[in-house]
Automatic annotation (TrEMBL), chain B:
Protein species of origin: Streptomyces toyocaensis
DNA-binding region: 125-224
Pfam hit, one: Trans_reg_C
Record flagged with keyword Phosphoprotein: yes
Gene Ontology biological process terms from the UniProt entry: positive regulation of DNA-templated transcription
Domain Response regulatory: 4-117
Source organism phylogeny: Bacteria, Bacillati, Actinomycetota, Actinomycetes, Kitasatosporales
Protein's UniProt keywords contain Phosphoprotein: yes
Name the UniProt record assigns to this protein: DNA-binding response regulator MtrA
Domain of life: Bacteria
Amino acid sequence: MSGDSAASAPGRSGDRPGRPVGRGKAASRWRHLFDGDLLQGGVQGSPVVRLVMRWVRRPLLPVIRLWRRNIQLKVVVTTLLMSLGVVLLLGFVVIGQVRNGLLDAKVKASQSQATGGFAVAKQQAEQAVSVTGEEGTAPDGRPSQSVIQWMSDLVASLSSGGQGAFDVVTLPSGGDSGSGRGPRASGGVNPAASVPAELRERIDTSTGAAQSYTRIVYAEKDKQSQPALVIGKQVNDPNGDPYQLYYLFPLTQEEKSLSLVKGTLATAGLFVVVLLGAIAWLVVRQVVTPVRMAAGIAERLSAGRLQERMKVTGEDDIARLGEAFNKMAQNLQLKISQLEDLSRMQRRFVSDVSHELRTPLTTVRMAADVIHEAREDFDPVTARSAELLADQLDRFESLLADLLEISRFDAGAAALEAEPIDLREVVRRVVTGAEPLAERKGTAIKVVGDQQPVVAEADARRVERVLRNLVVNAVEHGEGKDVVVKLAAAGGAVAVAVRDYGVGLKPGEATRVFSRFWRADPARARTTGGTGLGLSIALEDARLHGGWLQAWGEPGGGSQFRLTLPRTADEPLRGSPIPLEPKDSRRNRGLDDAGLPRGGDGEKRATVPVGRPGADDPAQSARDPLGRRPGASAPTADPTALPGNGARVVARSGSTRMTAGTVSGTNGGTDGARPGDADRPAAGGEGGDGAPRDAEKDGEATRGR
Amino acid sequence: MKGRVLVVDDDSALAEMLGIVLRGEGFEPSFVADGDKALAAFRETKPDLVLLDLMLPGRDGIEVCRLIRAESGVPIVMLTAKSDTVDVVVGLESGADDYIVKPFKPKELVARIRARLRRSEEPAPEQLAIGDLVIDVAGHSVKRDGQSIALTPLEFDLLVALARKPWQVFTREVLLEQVWGYRHAADTRLVNVHVQRLRSKVEKDPEKPEIVVTVRGVGYKAGPS
């Protein structure tokens, strides 16, 4: 096998990332999530991390697949998430409103209560001053016993007004912690812990009242702390020293109300979410069930069960879908059966014509042969006539046979009877069969690459017909030079190339050779009288196998025809084990037309990958703007040449050009006549060495059928 | 070599031409143009070989072929204008030994007829075993456990060819040459169809052949004795 085998190319596509999942918008979202942004993040490339990621992702795959495949699940989950969001938002708003409402009332009531209290405290202090006069204060400034007592009385009297509704706390002013007026509190409240320090600072610095939320901490350990509103103010005692007086209003009731509201909202929200999910499930089911039914029926339709129809009930959109679907199926069935009828009629017609023509032809043939046998008894004119009659009957016969064969292909009546065959056997038979002709022409037929078996699933009769055609053509057009038949197998493909060193092919002819009744040179005398259908039939045979039949040639340098078949039927071809352009082409040897060594740059230029056959012209040229840029260095040939039919034309500097045609798969050989394209010169003179070679591989590897 | 040949063909010109050619080659042709009368003519003339056109008025060729095969193993060569897979295979399956596609050359036809008649020359006494079958070549009989199995001459030839060289794998082309007498490889469907027919007669379970074994990718060989 040659080094630049194209069939090694398919292997490259094997190392795609092993993501077994499909495509689509959702898929790409998930892929994004799992491959890049979320899981791999900044540690891309580390094999260990990738291993871990794979390990993490594996159990998730079924879930992801279910998510991707099940629209019902998607809708239900989305509904659940969105309604959950709405319910949460609503809950927060409602709870905020309720809290504000509850607290506003409480705060107002508390403020008025506290204001009253502060006034009472002030009043009592003034009263105490008027009663005790100057006695209250010792000379050293320490609070006298009576102030301490007065303060305890004040706390008791203030708190007595609202047993349970509020508590009263007094604290010394901030800078006065050393004084004997310790904190006091009613109702067993821990005074220091219950008033936040921040509030105390604020009271210290201002003369007005201030408020804050806090938790009442009780001195007794087993009594639970509770939320409260605290309102404080700096008040003077009878000595005129400031102290802090606080009213603590427990918010227990309000909190209870709020938690009740919260609980109610949460329950309601949960119900709403669940119910919405259930509703979404039901609603989606209504839509999805017919869609799934349609999908199932569409699958069965495409599997050939054309009588399948959807059940239609009602007149809604789903019913309209069903009706439209059924109408489509009906029309499809009609068209298909019409086409089938036509095809059957065509086949029937071909068959009938065949029979009707062949029976008389058989009689004529036999009669001609009898006359031909007896021609020695005739006069020269009649004898020659008998010869001509017999010869032309041969030609008529083969023409008829080829025509019928082609019409069988056209009618789609050709059936492949594939079984594993060794192509070496076929080649041996074909070469043996062509020996007499080769001897007459003075040509030696060599077979290369037959050391090991070249087995493929193929129809031996058809393959033999193709190869016989190629070999006989090569011998006929080989001008007495050698013909080389090369076999190779690689990857999922086997190939047989038939190389001759005769007149070769002119630019553009590589595709036209497969056209029906095409003649290389209409003026040239027809020596062997083929029907002109041989290569067309061969192409159809190759196509029937899912294979390729391609031609390459250079004027005066011979040509090579390559048949590539998949190793097993139904396996798509991705490359051929034999390069289409042989290694000993003039260009590869660095020779010019006259067979002289060419100087400089041109010899490494390779054929350029063509687009897939069937790609249309503008698209092709748009894809490779470089090809037309004058003086561009990279491309050495014009890939826009013959894009529509998959032919490849490699133009070279000067007058030498080569052609290579790819006629395979879906495109017919008949659209090959575009002489102008073939003659387009190459853009740019200097070619890189490596890149074009690769390009050729790629071209061969990716060319579709 | 003399041989009586029954030509069943509705095309009188072709029939006459066939007669001319066959007489020229030393055969004794007789003619019938109608499918319905073919069987009666066959019983009457007792030919050594039948040339049968597939398209006939009355009973078609396939039916005639089946009827003749039902009561005789005489070689049948179909004349067909259709080389399409289905027609040929149906013809072969209905019991024809060989077929020749119109238009054919007289020499080709004669070669086929001679190949089919060749076997009537007396073979040397020979006993062969293939699987659990015993073949008496001279007596033209195949027996399993003393029970004789009826085979047409062609099927018998096919079995004998395989049994003579049980160590060898026969390609379809080789079998075509040895059994049918084709010098050039022709339609290997002939071999396939006749192997199927043979198997349906000699195998205990035609789905799992033990006498005529397929060698995948190559051809057939005799099963182990």
